[in-house]
Structures are given as structure tokens and as C-alpha cells.
Amino acid sequence: MSHCHQYQSNYTRRDFLTKTSLGLGAVSLMGLLNPLKLTANAPNLVGSEAFLENLGPHFPPKVKRVIYLFQSGAPSQVDLFDYKPELRRFHGEELPNSVRQGQRLTGMSAGQANLPIAASPYTFQQYGQSGAWVSELMPHTAKIVDELCFVKSMYTEAINHDPAVTFVQSGSQLPGRPSIGSWISYGLGSLNKNLPAFCVLLSQGVGGGGQPLYNRLWGNGFLPSHHQGVQFRAGKDAILYLGNPEGISRVARQNQLKHLQKMQEEQFEKLKDPEILAKIAQYEMAFNMQTSVPEVMDLSNEPDYIFDMYGADSKTPGTYAANCLLARRLIEKDVRFIQLYHRGWDHHNNLPGQLPKLCRQTDQASAALVKDLKQRGLLEDTLVVWGGEFGRTTYSQGKLKPNNFGRDHHPRCFTTWMAGGGIKKGLTYGQTDDFSYNIVSNPVHVHDFQATMLHLLGMNHENLTYKFQGRRFRLTDVHGTVVKDILA
Fold first, then answer.
1. Which CA distances in Å does 317 have to 240, 289, 293, 369?
2. 22 lies in a domain?
3. Residue 228 maps to a domain
4. Looking at the 3D structure of the chain, how many domains does it have?
5. Cβ contacts of residue 188 below 8 Å, gap of 6+?
6. Domain containing 348: what range?
7. Pairwise CA distance, residues 441 & 427, whole Å
8. Cβ-Cβ contacts under 8 Å for 460 (sequence gap 6 or more)
9. Is pLDDT above 70 for 20?
10. Residue 356 has pLDDT above 80, yes or no
11. Pairing of strands 124-127, 132-135
12. Is residue 167 pLDDT above 90, yes or no?
């Protein structure tokens, strides 16, 4: 075989792309010249060509940023927002078969001899011009109801915590899919080159315990790794392994990263693996965060009236109140998506003893966050979401006692509230039956909720896709409809 023929037989598509001016090397160079282009504003090197048209907003957005206050464990809608006075007439009686309609139960209450109805022991009142019903357990939220849109007809497909949390956070009950924040980071990119587009804050409910939260819930799944959520922690090191080792100066670290980036660029030219570009972006972000993170975590310049607004706990790092305040500070720095998880809402027993404590721990700070954003002009282009993974049953799990009962998981209906840009204020949307068991009007599936969130950010959920293992995936899978009735 001649040398010419031998060369042609060994000349691969990779060689062609490497040699041409429009190859992947040229595409990667554009990203390296602008770190923000390494996010969704730049061509994706592993997605299909069709995906290139989907990057960035598909239409003018109503909001730029999101704060998701996720109440892990599932708050009881019937004790907080879904007022059902008729239940008092049926307190202690068996849940009618006409209401249950043969729907499945969890293994924790399926074996009960009976399912006694447990009316809420808490009083409800109407508040604001909107007349929204709110429990006595949420006095601070009651004061801001005219800023909120209550969606009382949320429902999900999962009946147990782990698949339900995974579903609402990633659009699938199976682990491994990208989280909401990762999809948004991928679709819109970053607004601040010195902080991650997707930040995560965790806090613990009263008494400890609660359902576990895994870091895959804020993982990037099959998306490039620089879209994963970055967890901020309480204590000296807000982000693990961010600081320089003892004896290493910032200048020395910068020089090291320059040499490392050069080696990684050479490696990319050989392998064409986009994860190499993700590593370059992560190293650069980590270097920038060495100064930006301490700045955003320093609350010493916050006036006393702000701490009073959020509550006494706001001075204690790692608490829900402190994390709400930190979320506002991150919003001021144009962080794209902030996920705040608060554990402890799983009340299978002793609900009267535990639920009031969780509300006292979270109610004031949640309301303060909305008010604080509004007074700074940030609520206009920020979306705030409050909610859990599903609801709680109207019937008592276990024996119904005069001063003690629990509620099991209930995927058929639960309540979420939203506030901010693009959302109708003072609206109560959807309705459940007299037992807060089934939805009777305007059901909102988890995928509908996700589609609506993406719509507010200027993205068509059907077009925000990513090709992986031969299939185009999206956050809303093959479902989801934008809930236009709640849009301003």
C-alpha cells in the first residue's frame, strides 16, 4: 500500500475536525476566551447540532433568578393553607370509600384497621385583600399573602420520599437526571463569573432527623459537570477545599492554574473530551470564589433591623433564617438559581408537637425574604418558590388520640406558593375536595410546575433538551404544560 493510501485510510473524522478552522478546537477556544461562554451561552460539544439553537432564553424572560425554598419531608397542606372546616364534622370517622376511590396507600398505613379522619386542630383566617386562608401556625406568611400565588392543586406520581424529592427536583423518580438548577445553569449560563450559577443551602429542622438529602439532588446528571450545584456550608469553610493550603499564596495558586490550564488545553486537543473544558471552568471559578465567597458570607455589614426582620436565628450560621438571608445576598450577586433545603417536615406521628416548631423555625424568615427582596427592588425579576415533595393525608396514621396524631404521605394534592416577577399576586389557584384528598379543579402536575418555572425564565421546556445515550432528555420528560392562569 502506498504512503498516500495508508494516510487516507488512517485519516479519521477527528483528524479532520482538528485540522479545520471550524473544528471543535476552534469552538473550545471561543469558550476559553470568555469563561461565561463555557456555560449554556456557548455551543455544547456533546449535544446535537439542533441543540445549539436552544441555548440562552427562547423569549424575553420575566425573571432572571430563582430561590427555591424546599421544605423536605412534606408539610401538611391541611394544617397550613388548605382550609377544610367541614372536616370537623367528620373528625374521628372513617375516611369514606367514595373519597379514597381505591387509591394506593403507603406500607405504613395500608395495614391499619381503619383510617380515621383527623381535622386540623389549628384555626384559620382570611388575610389581605386577596382573602387567602392561612393557619395560625404561619402568622408572618399571612401578612404577605397579597404578594403570593398559592397553588393548592399540586400533585405528583411518587408516594415515598426519595422518589418524590428526586421527581420534583429532576423530573424523574429515578436517580441520575440533572437537577432543576443544573438545567437552568445549562440553559441560561451564569450572570456572575465569580460565583456559581447554582448554589445550594441546607438547614436542619427542630429536633434533628428527617429524610436524608443526597448530593445527587443538586447534581448535574449527564450534563457537563460545571453545571452541578455548589453547596455552601455553615462554619469556617463555606465551600470545602476552596482555600489555599498553608504556605501557598494567591499568586502562586494563580500561576499553578495557568500552567494546569495550558496542559488541559493540550489534552483537549488530543481527546476532544468536553469534560476537560468543564474542569478548566471549575478551576477558574474556584479561584474567583476564594475572594467572592468570604465576601458574600460576611454578614457584619447587615444592619440590626435586617436580623430582626429574619428572626433571631438569622445570626446563627446554618439555620433556615441565616440561609434565607444568605439567599438574598446571593441574589444581589446575581446567582442564577439558589436551592434551600430544610429538613424535618415528615410528621408520621406527634404532628401537634412537631409541626408548630417547624413553622416557628421557618415562617418568619420565608416572609422576610419576600419582603426584603421587594424593598430592594429584586422581587420584580426574582421568583421565590415554597413547597415540599407531596402532601399529607387527612386521615390519621396510627391511632387518633385527642392530642396526638400523625399524617401519612399523600401525593394526590399539596400546596405550593410562589412570589415574584411574572406571577399573579394575591391569587389562590386550584381547589381540592372537602377532605383535602382529591383535586376538583385546575390540577397542576410537577412537570407543569417545572414547565412554568422555565417559562418565567424565558425558556420553552420542550426545547431545553440534551442528547444522551441516543435520546433527547428534558426536565419535564415528555409531559408538562405551562400554567398560564397564574402568569401575570
1. 16, 19, 14, 16
2. no
3. yes
4. 1
5. 39, 40, 56, 57, 197, 336, 457, 458, 459
6. 65-238+318-486
7. 15
8. 58, 59, 454
9. no
10. yes
11. antiparallel
12. yes
- C-alpha torsion sign, points 90, 94, 100, 106: positive
Q: What is the pTM of this model?
A: 0.85
Inside any domain, residue 295: no
Cα–Cα distance, 201 to 41 (Å, whole number)? 26
Which grid coordinates are listed for 200? Answer: 445550594
Q: Does some domain include residue 10? A: no
d(CA 325, CA 370): 11
Amino acid of residue 69: L
Q: Any idea what the CATH number is for the domain that residue 394 is in?
A: 3.40.720
- The CA-CA-CA angle for residues 413, 419, 423, to 5°, reads 90
pLDDT tens-digit series, residues 42-84: 333 333 333 333 368 999 999 999 999 999 999 999 999 999 9
